[in-house]
Automatic annotation (TrEMBL):
<keyword id="KW-0645">Protease</keyword>
<keyword id="KW-0378">Hydrolase</keyword>
<comment type="similarity">
    <text>Belongs to the peptidase M14 family.</text>
</comment>
<protein>
    <submittedName>
        <fullName>M14 family zinc carboxypeptidase</fullName>
    </submittedName>
</protein>
<keyword id="KW-0121">Carboxypeptidase</keyword>
<dbReference type="InterPro" id="IPR000834">
    <property type="entry name" value="Peptidase_M14"/>
</dbReference>
<feature type="domain" description="Peptidase M14">
    <location>
        <begin position="14"/>
        <end position="332"/>
    </location>
</feature>
<dbReference type="Pfam" id="PF00246">
    <property type="entry name" value="Peptidase_M14"/>
</dbReference>
<feature type="active site" description="Proton donor/acceptor">
    <location>
        <position position="287"/>
    </location>
</feature>
<dbReference type="GO" id="GO:0004180">
    <property type="term" value="F:carboxypeptidase activity"/>
</dbReference>
Length: 385
């Protein structure tokens, strides 16, 4: 897949009405009017708080692909990329789109957890993690997803998520900007035929992404949990690809990562449409390094605190406020952090550190919006691209 073509397509098809981290039902419903000319839109049912959940269907091909995004409501990057991809697919002048729709039928649930999306939380209205409810199916959203799986019996499943800024691609200085997983279907993590197929597709996406984010593609841990939907699907023999949209430098709105997810979606679906995939190239999947946890949002290095020379790690917590996501800097660790990296690093040169708010101590769990190193004032305010 040609990167120049992908870049040009993204510029053309990016959905301008979707941006930032806070994406919920009210943002996507207006888009259905335009899409409905080309896409079959079905109301599947409602969430636990009676918000509508929709299924979008397009294409006429025999290969059936099922996608769902925002199973965790605060993981919105893939939703943006899905609508970018939809804009490309409905362009009947695009030859790649024509080929995909002739070979494949795509079923897309753009927001599986509308209540979680509105509240900007990982959990649904009943405070249940839908990705731990695949077996018990205690929630309406879980039942709807399983009903769709049983109804259409997809040949491929795309489980679209987002991940925290802590992850690295291996134990390295490179952030895991995008991560993938072919989930295990048993506790032995057997490399089954369906996993091999998913692994081959992931390897193809990695080949494409290495051209734009070299060394920043990770492989998510494949520890088995049958309560997770991906593990359940692998157990059922359905090739399943987990996407994790991660961090790119200064990209806390995940607008750059959105681009790379778009590239990956196009590359994967085009590959499926053109190939008879049996998993012969699965071994390339293992060239992708397994994710480490080597990052903090900010590391303040080599400072004096209580007469000790330490490093201080700060992590942003995300809070919904006035229909926007606020990033609150909190101290999470004080130690020698020589084996970790900061997305932003401040060198203290053994200066004494003090919170600007002198009533708040420099200790874990406390906020630190601004601080002094001797007499010089620094801010932990988020730097966005």
């Amino acid at each position: 897949m040609n990167i120049k073509n992908l870049s040009g397509w993204f510029d053309i098809y990016k959905e301008p009405s979707l941006s930032g981290r806070y994406i919920h039902l009210e943002h996507i419903l207006p888009l259905f009017d335009t899409l409905s000319i080309h896409v079959e839109i079905e109301l599947l049912g409602t969430s636990e708080n009676n918000a509508p959940i929709h299924l979008l269907k397009l294409g006429t091909g025999k290969k059936k692909l099922l996608f769902w995004s925002q199973m965790h409501g605060n993981e919105s990057t893939t939703t943006k990329a899905v609508f970018d991809f939809l804009n490309m697919l409905i362009d009947d002048t695009n030859e790649i789109s024509q080929g995909i729709l002739a070979s494949c039928t795509l079923y897309i649930i753009p927001i599986l957890s509308p209540d979680g999306a509105k509240a900007y939380t990982r959990l649904n209205y009943n405070q249940i993690d839908l990705n731990r409810d695949a077996q018990n199916k205690t929630q309406k959203e879980s039942i709807l997803l399983r009903d769709i799986i049983d109804r259409f019996q997809p040949n491929y499943a795309f489980n679209l998520h987002g991940q925290r800024t802590i992850f690295s691609a291996g134990e390295t200085k490179y952030p895991a900007t995008v991560s993938f997983l072919s989930p295990a279907g048993d506790k032995e993590r057997t490399i089954t035929p369906c996993r091999k197929i998913a692994m081959e597709i992931i390897a193809e996406m990695n080949t494409v992404l290495q051209q734009v984010i070299p060394n920043s593609v990770g492989r998510y841990d494949d520890g088995f949990n049958i309560n997770c939907i991906g593990d359940t699907l692998s157990d059922m023999g359905i090739p399943t690809i987990l996407f994790e949209a991660g961090h790119y430098k200064d990209d806390y709105d995940r607008e750059k990562t959105r681009v790379f997810i778009f590239y990956a979606l196009v590359a994967a679906v085009d590959y499926i449409s053109e190939k008879n995939i049996v998993g012969n190239l699965y071994e390339n999947y293992f060239e992708i390094p397994e994710n480490g946890k080597c990052f903090y949002d900010i590391i303040i290095r080599d400072v004096m605190l209580d007469k000790k020379n330490v490093d201080i790690a700060i992590q942003y917590t995300e809070e919904l406020s006035e229909n926007d996501i606020k990033f609150i800097p909190k101290i999470v660790k004080i130690a020698d952090l020589g084996n970790f990296y900061g997305h932003r690093e401040i060198i203290g040169n053994k200066r004494v550190i003090q919170n600007e708010n002198v009533t708040v101590e420099v200790v874990p769990d406390n906020e630190m919006l601004k601080f002094y190193l001797n007499d010089e004032l620094f801010s932990t305010e988020l730097r966005k691209s």
